Amino acid sequence: MRYYNVWQLARAIEFLQETVIAGEFNSSNLGPIRVPDERMNHWYVPMLRYCQTQCEQLELAAALARFHHFNQEIRQGITWSELRNQAKVLLEAIHSELCYRRFAFVPTEKATMHDKFGSSWEGIWARFPEVKEDSQRAADCYALEQNTACVFQMMRVAEIGLRNIAKQVGVRLTDKGKPQPTEYATWDKVIQGINAKITAARALAHGPKKNMKLQFYSQAADQCVFIRDIWRNEISHTRKSYNDAEALGVITRIREFMELLSKGIQ
Protein backbone atom coordinates (compact mmCIF):
# COMPACT_ATOMS: atom_id res chain seq x y z
CA MET A 1 0.00 0.00 0.00
CA ARG A 2 1.36 3.40 -0.97
CA TYR A 3 0.98 6.15 1.59
CA TYR A 4 0.21 9.70 0.60
CA ASN A 5 -0.79 12.69 2.73
CA VAL A 6 -3.69 14.20 0.81
CA TRP A 7 -3.11 17.53 2.54
CA GLN A 8 0.06 17.89 0.45
CA LEU A 9 -2.10 17.79 -2.66
CA ALA A 10 -4.57 20.24 -1.12
CA ARG A 11 -1.72 22.65 -0.37
CA ALA A 12 -0.43 22.42 -3.95
CA ILE A 13 -3.88 23.15 -5.38
CA GLU A 14 -4.36 26.02 -2.94
CA PHE A 15 -1.03 27.55 -4.02
CA LEU A 16 -1.96 27.37 -7.70
CA GLN A 17 -5.33 28.95 -6.98
CA GLU A 18 -3.59 31.76 -5.09
CA THR A 19 -1.18 32.18 -8.01
CA VAL A 20 -4.07 32.58 -10.45
CA ILE A 21 -5.64 35.22 -8.20
CA ALA A 22 -2.32 37.07 -7.69
CA GLY A 23 -1.59 37.00 -11.41
CA GLU A 24 -5.05 38.35 -12.22
CA PHE A 25 -4.81 41.10 -9.62
CA ASN A 26 -1.31 42.27 -10.53
CA SER A 27 -1.82 42.13 -14.29
CA SER A 28 -4.97 44.24 -13.90
CA ASN A 29 -3.33 46.79 -11.61
CA LEU A 30 0.28 46.85 -12.80
CA GLY A 31 -0.07 46.08 -16.48
CA PRO A 32 2.18 43.76 -18.55
CA ILE A 33 5.22 43.81 -16.30
CA ARG A 34 7.42 40.89 -15.26
CA VAL A 35 7.11 39.20 -11.91
CA PRO A 36 10.02 40.51 -9.78
CA ASP A 37 12.93 38.05 -9.71
CA GLU A 38 13.09 38.05 -5.92
CA ARG A 39 9.41 37.18 -5.65
CA MET A 40 9.70 34.54 -8.33
CA ASN A 41 12.86 32.87 -6.97
CA HIS A 42 11.97 32.96 -3.29
CA TRP A 43 8.29 32.06 -3.48
CA TYR A 44 6.90 30.88 -6.80
CA VAL A 45 9.79 28.67 -7.94
CA PRO A 46 10.06 26.71 -4.63
CA MET A 47 6.28 26.26 -4.46
CA LEU A 48 6.11 25.13 -8.07
CA ARG A 49 8.76 22.53 -7.31
CA TYR A 50 6.60 21.42 -4.39
CA CYS A 51 3.59 21.13 -6.73
CA GLN A 52 5.68 19.18 -9.23
CA THR A 53 6.72 16.72 -6.51
CA GLN A 54 3.07 16.08 -5.65
CA CYS A 55 2.24 15.49 -9.30
CA GLU A 56 5.16 13.06 -9.59
CA GLN A 57 3.96 11.10 -6.56
CA LEU A 58 0.44 10.88 -8.01
CA GLU A 59 1.71 10.16 -11.55
CA LEU A 60 -0.18 13.08 -13.11
CA ALA A 61 1.47 12.88 -16.53
CA ALA A 62 -0.43 15.70 -18.24
CA ALA A 63 0.21 18.07 -15.35
CA LEU A 64 3.90 17.15 -15.33
CA ALA A 65 4.10 17.97 -19.03
CA ARG A 66 2.75 21.44 -18.27
CA PHE A 67 5.62 22.10 -15.87
CA HIS A 68 8.04 21.98 -18.82
CA HIS A 69 6.29 24.92 -20.49
CA PHE A 70 5.86 26.73 -17.19
CA ASN A 71 9.56 26.47 -16.37
CA GLN A 72 10.54 27.66 -19.84
CA GLU A 73 8.56 30.86 -19.41
CA ILE A 74 10.01 31.40 -15.94
CA ARG A 75 13.58 31.15 -17.30
CA GLN A 76 12.79 33.69 -20.01
CA GLY A 77 11.10 36.07 -17.59
CA ILE A 78 7.38 35.80 -17.00
CA THR A 79 4.75 38.53 -16.68
CA TRP A 80 1.94 38.46 -14.14
CA SER A 81 -0.52 37.70 -16.91
CA GLU A 82 1.56 34.77 -18.17
CA LEU A 83 1.97 33.51 -14.60
CA ARG A 84 -1.79 33.54 -14.19
CA ASN A 85 -2.35 31.69 -17.47
CA GLN A 86 0.27 29.03 -16.79
CA ALA A 87 -1.03 28.41 -13.25
CA LYS A 88 -4.60 28.21 -14.52
CA VAL A 89 -3.78 25.66 -17.24
CA LEU A 90 -1.72 23.62 -14.78
CA LEU A 91 -4.56 23.65 -12.27
CA GLU A 92 -7.01 22.47 -14.93
CA ALA A 93 -4.65 19.63 -15.89
CA ILE A 94 -4.41 18.50 -12.26
CA HIS A 95 -8.19 18.63 -11.79
CA SER A 96 -8.73 16.67 -15.01
CA GLU A 97 -6.33 13.88 -14.05
CA LEU A 98 -7.53 13.62 -10.46
CA CYS A 99 -10.84 12.32 -11.84
CA TYR A 100 -8.95 9.12 -12.68
CA ARG A 101 -7.12 8.73 -9.38
CA ARG A 102 -8.43 6.73 -6.43
CA PHE A 103 -7.70 7.46 -2.79
CA ALA A 104 -8.65 5.32 0.20
CA PHE A 105 -10.03 6.74 3.42
CA VAL A 106 -8.98 4.96 6.61
CA PRO A 107 -11.29 5.54 9.62
CA THR A 108 -9.65 7.13 12.65
CA GLU A 109 -9.72 4.01 14.82
CA LYS A 110 -8.15 1.87 12.13
CA ALA A 111 -5.64 4.58 11.23
CA THR A 112 -4.52 4.73 14.87
CA MET A 113 -4.11 0.96 14.99
CA HIS A 114 -2.20 1.01 11.69
CA ASP A 115 0.12 3.80 12.87
CA LYS A 116 0.94 1.96 16.10
CA PHE A 117 1.21 -1.49 14.53
CA GLY A 118 4.99 -1.43 14.20
CA SER A 119 5.57 -0.64 17.87
CA SER A 120 3.52 -3.65 19.01
CA TRP A 121 5.34 -5.99 16.59
CA GLU A 122 8.85 -4.60 16.97
CA GLY A 123 10.05 -7.37 19.29
CA ILE A 124 8.58 -10.07 17.05
CA TRP A 125 10.22 -8.62 13.95
CA ALA A 126 13.56 -8.49 15.75
CA ARG A 127 13.33 -12.23 16.47
CA PHE A 128 11.53 -13.30 13.29
CA PRO A 129 12.30 -10.72 10.56
CA GLU A 130 10.77 -13.02 7.97
CA VAL A 131 7.25 -12.29 9.28
CA LYS A 132 7.53 -8.51 8.92
CA GLU A 133 6.25 -8.19 5.37
CA ASP A 134 3.24 -10.47 5.84
CA SER A 135 2.25 -8.90 9.16
CA GLN A 136 2.52 -5.40 7.68
CA ARG A 137 0.39 -6.45 4.71
CA ALA A 138 -2.17 -7.84 7.16
CA ALA A 139 -2.34 -4.45 8.87
CA ASP A 140 -2.76 -2.77 5.48
CA CYS A 141 -5.61 -5.12 4.58
CA TYR A 142 -7.32 -4.50 7.92
CA ALA A 143 -7.06 -0.72 7.49
CA LEU A 144 -8.62 -1.01 4.02
CA GLU A 145 -11.43 -3.29 5.26
CA GLN A 146 -10.07 -6.30 3.37
CA ASN A 147 -10.65 -8.49 6.38
CA THR A 148 -10.50 -11.92 4.78
CA ALA A 149 -7.21 -10.98 3.10
CA CYS A 150 -5.98 -9.78 6.50
CA VAL A 151 -6.71 -13.20 8.04
CA PHE A 152 -4.95 -14.93 5.13
CA GLN A 153 -1.81 -12.83 5.67
CA MET A 154 -1.87 -13.62 9.38
CA MET A 155 -2.05 -17.34 8.64
CA ARG A 156 1.20 -16.94 6.70
CA VAL A 157 2.73 -15.37 9.81
CA ALA A 158 1.47 -18.22 11.98
CA GLU A 159 2.87 -20.78 9.55
CA ILE A 160 6.33 -19.28 9.92
CA GLY A 161 5.91 -19.66 13.67
CA LEU A 162 4.88 -23.29 13.21
CA ARG A 163 7.94 -24.04 11.08
CA ASN A 164 10.20 -22.47 13.70
CA ILE A 165 8.77 -24.77 16.37
CA ALA A 166 9.40 -27.75 14.10
CA LYS A 167 12.97 -26.63 13.56
CA GLN A 168 13.61 -26.23 17.28
CA VAL A 169 12.39 -29.71 18.22
CA GLY A 170 14.26 -31.29 15.30
CA VAL A 171 11.38 -32.42 13.10
CA ARG A 172 12.50 -34.32 10.01
CA LEU A 173 9.76 -35.01 7.49
CA THR A 174 9.71 -37.31 4.49
CA ASP A 175 7.47 -37.71 1.47
CA LYS A 176 7.57 -40.92 -0.55
CA GLY A 177 10.82 -41.82 1.16
CA LYS A 178 12.52 -38.52 0.39
CA PRO A 179 13.28 -35.61 2.78
CA GLN A 180 10.53 -32.98 2.78
CA PRO A 181 11.12 -29.37 3.91
CA THR A 182 8.51 -28.24 6.43
CA GLU A 183 7.40 -25.38 4.16
CA TYR A 184 6.17 -27.97 1.64
CA ALA A 185 4.29 -30.06 4.20
CA THR A 186 0.73 -29.61 5.42
CA TRP A 187 0.07 -28.11 8.84
CA ASP A 188 -1.25 -31.48 10.00
CA LYS A 189 1.95 -33.23 9.02
CA VAL A 190 4.18 -30.63 10.68
CA ILE A 191 2.12 -30.62 13.89
CA GLN A 192 2.18 -34.43 14.00
CA GLY A 193 5.95 -34.32 13.58
CA ILE A 194 6.28 -31.82 16.45
CA ASN A 195 4.08 -33.88 18.76
CA ALA A 196 5.96 -37.07 17.91
CA LYS A 197 9.28 -35.40 18.80
CA ILE A 198 7.88 -34.07 22.08
CA THR A 199 6.42 -37.47 23.03
CA ALA A 200 9.70 -39.21 22.27
CA ALA A 201 11.68 -36.64 24.28
CA ARG A 202 9.41 -37.00 27.31
CA ALA A 203 10.12 -40.72 27.44
CA LEU A 204 13.77 -39.96 28.16
CA ALA A 205 15.20 -38.97 31.52
CA HIS A 206 15.88 -35.22 31.85
CA GLY A 207 15.80 -32.40 34.37
CA PRO A 208 13.34 -29.61 35.23
CA LYS A 209 14.78 -27.21 32.65
CA LYS A 210 14.28 -29.72 29.86
CA ASN A 211 10.77 -30.46 31.10
CA MET A 212 9.88 -26.76 31.01
CA LYS A 213 11.18 -26.49 27.47
CA LEU A 214 9.15 -29.49 26.34
CA GLN A 215 6.07 -28.06 28.02
CA PHE A 216 6.58 -24.78 26.19
CA TYR A 217 6.80 -26.49 22.80
CA SER A 218 3.79 -28.65 23.63
CA GLN A 219 1.69 -25.60 24.47
CA ALA A 220 2.92 -23.80 21.36
CA ALA A 221 1.96 -26.82 19.24
CA ASP A 222 -1.49 -26.83 20.86
CA GLN A 223 -1.90 -23.20 19.82
CA CYS A 224 -1.01 -24.19 16.27
CA VAL A 225 -3.79 -26.79 16.36
CA PHE A 226 -6.22 -24.11 17.57
CA ILE A 227 -5.13 -21.68 14.84
CA ARG A 228 -5.41 -24.41 12.21
CA ASP A 229 -8.90 -25.52 13.25
CA ILE A 230 -10.41 -22.08 13.84
CA TRP A 231 -8.88 -20.01 11.01
CA ARG A 232 -6.32 -21.68 8.80
CA ASN A 233 -8.54 -24.43 7.40
CA GLU A 234 -11.43 -22.02 6.94
CA ILE A 235 -9.40 -19.41 5.05
CA SER A 236 -7.57 -21.97 2.90
CA HIS A 237 -10.77 -23.61 1.64
CA THR A 238 -12.82 -20.42 1.10
CA ARG A 239 -15.40 -21.52 3.64
CA LYS A 240 -15.82 -18.18 5.33
CA SER A 241 -15.40 -14.43 5.05
CA TYR A 242 -14.39 -12.27 8.02
CA ASN A 243 -15.63 -8.99 9.46
CA ASP A 244 -13.66 -6.22 11.18
CA ALA A 245 -13.94 -7.63 14.69
CA GLU A 246 -12.94 -11.14 13.60
CA ALA A 247 -9.95 -9.88 11.61
CA LEU A 248 -8.76 -7.78 14.54
CA GLY A 249 -9.17 -10.80 16.81
CA VAL A 250 -6.94 -12.85 14.50
CA ILE A 251 -4.29 -10.11 14.45
CA THR A 252 -4.30 -10.04 18.25
CA ARG A 253 -4.18 -13.82 18.63
CA ILE A 254 -1.36 -14.31 16.14
CA ARG A 255 0.62 -11.46 17.70
CA GLU A 256 0.31 -13.15 21.10
CA PHE A 257 1.35 -16.47 19.54
CA MET A 258 4.42 -14.92 17.93
CA GLU A 259 5.28 -13.04 21.13
CA LEU A 260 5.21 -16.38 22.95
CA LEU A 261 7.59 -17.89 20.41
CA SER A 262 9.90 -14.87 20.40
CA LYS A 263 10.36 -15.24 24.15
CA GLY A 264 10.56 -19.03 24.26
CA ILE A 265 12.61 -19.90 21.17
CA GLN A 266 16.30 -19.11 21.55
Rounded average pLDDT: 91
Into which percent range does the helicity of residues fall?
over 70%
Q: How many E-type strands?
A: 2
The coarse silhouette is: rod-shaped
Unreliable stretches, pLDDT < 50, 5 or more residues? Answer: none
Radius of gyration: 29 Å
Strand pairing plus helix content: what structural class? mainly alpha
Sheet with the most strands, sense and barrel status:
2 strands, antiparallel
Approximate strand percentage: under 5%
Secondary-structure element order, as H and E?
HHHHHHHEEHHH
Number of H/I helices: 10
What's the number of structural domains? 2
**Major sheet: order of its strands?**
1-2
How far is the N terminus from the C terminus? 33 Å
Structural commentary:
It is a single chain. The chain is built from ten helices and two strands. A hairpin with a 2-residue loop joins strand 1 and strand 2 (178-180). Helix 9 (208-236) packs antiparallel against helix 10 (244-264). It is rod-shaped and about 100 Å long. The protein is an all-alpha fold. It folds into two domains: 6-98, no CATH class; 108-264, no CATH class. The model has no long low-confidence stretch (mean pLDDT 91). Strands 1-2 form a two-stranded antiparallel ribbon.
List keywords for this structure.
single chain; mainly alpha; 2 domains; two-stranded antiparallel sheet; 10 helices
